[in-house]
């Protein structure tokens, strides 16, 4: 399970043909971000890109201002713990074009990631939530105080190794 | 002169509103910084109802998670169950029968009406009118009685199952729904006519808590809060799920993005929901509603899905990652109230203390869903 | 010795008896009002109201009172103890003092102050504000402070139109004597002579006792009871009592000053008076069941931009009427003219959002039509 995204990626590129939406998405991004290593997968029915965390911010700005993927709304932001690293999923939506795209970014637990709360205000609380649950630091975020957990809570309950029961109550 | 000015300078007052406050709609806390009656700044605090539903569902089997979804948005239980069932069905690549889908839609739309009726009552209470709340509960109670006769519970139904329904609806389901429709329509009119065009209510809500379309999209607002700002975005129309493409209904939108427009959108939505129910009950097909899976353990193959649906409060999204075991690897909910509430800081700035509760009421949050 | 102190002694005894009678009358009245409010609001809201305590729930107010008195009386740690205890007493004493001179019939009155009855009512009515502000301040609670300051602002603002209505009535009748004022209304009640005065008095009366839509200083949904937020048990009951006594006083004054008091055919005068008072009180309850609450800035704007200028206009009208010795319907005409002006102002002010809504809907309809084409 630990290296699942890579397996899935191989599977997609080898066995199945890329859907037209993903090809379009891929062509556009690869022509813009030439020297960045991007991988393209389908998340369910959503064309998604796996992006290294260094160029995440630029990619987000590009997708927000781009005319094809006019992604003005950050619909969802989810963190998934893959033991070695945390994958952060951004689901972007364009109200005008009615299209959804996803961005995936893998972050090691001792690394920081750039905030996107300056691009979408909606990311503000999502990032604080992910910080609570996974302990990911977001660089440039104004206020990283706990949102869902109380002040002084120890541990990160989103992680797989956090116990369901038998932890110390507040 | 300078000395005088310094002496006359006042300091702002911190006013702590919540978590025990009658108008914060649950355990929500705001730190208001006020200057007289004007709000200068607000710092929202959530998490008082954080039960860790997402984490808990990683330890439950797929069937058992439906109960957790009931308890997220506890005013729109059926809608929440629907989106989770759709997510697992997509993961399993299966389709429930047409009859199941129709009954689900009917129940969801009834639940939407019940939820919006409660909203009309609470916005009335927030604005200081006590009668609409009691009127609205009459209609809501009728709907809940109907739910009870179908699922056995007035809230927290646990009625939708993956791939079907828990049991067949009662024999007189069609008659019951048809009987309740005109009564509900009358209840809705009775409730909202007392409030919607009342002059004092208008002066309390019009041009209060304005959020422009751009800001609303930026903050990720969905549902009536976004449509109040004039954006015609409804998941039922833009990406029809279940059987919503079979029905003819309109999406009401506001123009100014103030509290009154959000209120008006919700009132109109109740009538549209009634239209959907009318069409659905006429077309209700025969068939089986039992899930082909029965009570078997579900082990979907590895994969991930993102499913979204239109809740009374906005777009709910479920991101579900499966690792092939009988429990989900990760389940993330995109709660509409959470995003709607995040705009509270923008909405409350430079408003009056009295408006803070009206604005909060017009966002129509459910804290069970904000904190999960 | 006894003979020499006799008249004073008798006076003291009779005053004491009448005060006790007044106290018990008001207590019973408050109980009846509590029951009536619960029942009337219940009926307005399509529910039954109290039914389980006695026939028609008649014993409900007694159950309420027993519950309140038996509750623990909590004083917050940070509260200013003396102020906290004194504030409810100030409020309730001012509410009772008001009643000393209000006549229920020409004979049923504790002490009819012949030269200053109306003046006394206006003067004593202001004392209660002090109690509310002190209650808010003394309980060391921010909601309480906001509520107390709101109460001060609201009550002082609405005191002005109220007193101006008293002044205009005094100008018209040339007396402060309440019994005399009622007797002067025997052919034509003052509601016909001074319709503007009636409206001003009723609206500012609602604001004075803090009934909906002016229940701003203890708005439950925002500042959770304002000055009363920290009070519990018997102390809260005292506030409750004074609130109902004040409501009853405003209704009684409305009847005495504008609706002809106890005059009416067939029935005894006290029955007529009570019928009229309870009709006004039911009107107050009806308004409470119907309307939302105003905001503080809207309330103050309404007071200073509409009520105060109009009350001055009323005084001028009355002076003109008395100076030129015009017939009484001339005053009616002037009064209705003022009411029409204020009607237009309020209509413009209050329907501005409604008109905007209508305009918006019209724009939306045109937009939809153009899209369909």
Number of helices of chain C: 15
- Could you tell me the radius of gyration of chain A in angstroms? 17 Å
Order of helices and strands of chain A: HHEEHEEEEHE
What share of the residues of chain A does DSSP label as strand, in percent?
A: 25-35%
* Shape summary of chain C: globular
Low-confidence stretches of chain A: 1-5, 8-15
Write a structural description.
The complex is a heterotrimer of chains A (170), B (372) and C (373). Chain A is globular, with a radius of gyration of 17 Å. The model of chain A is unreliable at 1-5 and 8-15 (pLDDT under 50). Chain A has one domain: Beta Polymerase, domain 2, CATH 3.30.460.80. Chain A is of the alpha/beta class and 170 residues long. Chain A has helices at 4-14, 20-32, 56-65, 123-134; strands at 39-43, 46-50, 73-82, 85-94, 99-108, 112-114, 137-139. Chain A has a five-stranded mixed β-sheet. Chain A has four helices and seven strands. Chain B has one domain: Cytochrome-c3 Hydrogenase, chain B. The N and C termini of chain B lie far apart (55 Å). Chains in contact: A-B, B-C. At the B-C interface, strand 1, helix 5, helix 6, helix 8 and helix 15 of B face helix 6, helix 10, helix 12, helix 13 and helix 15 of C.
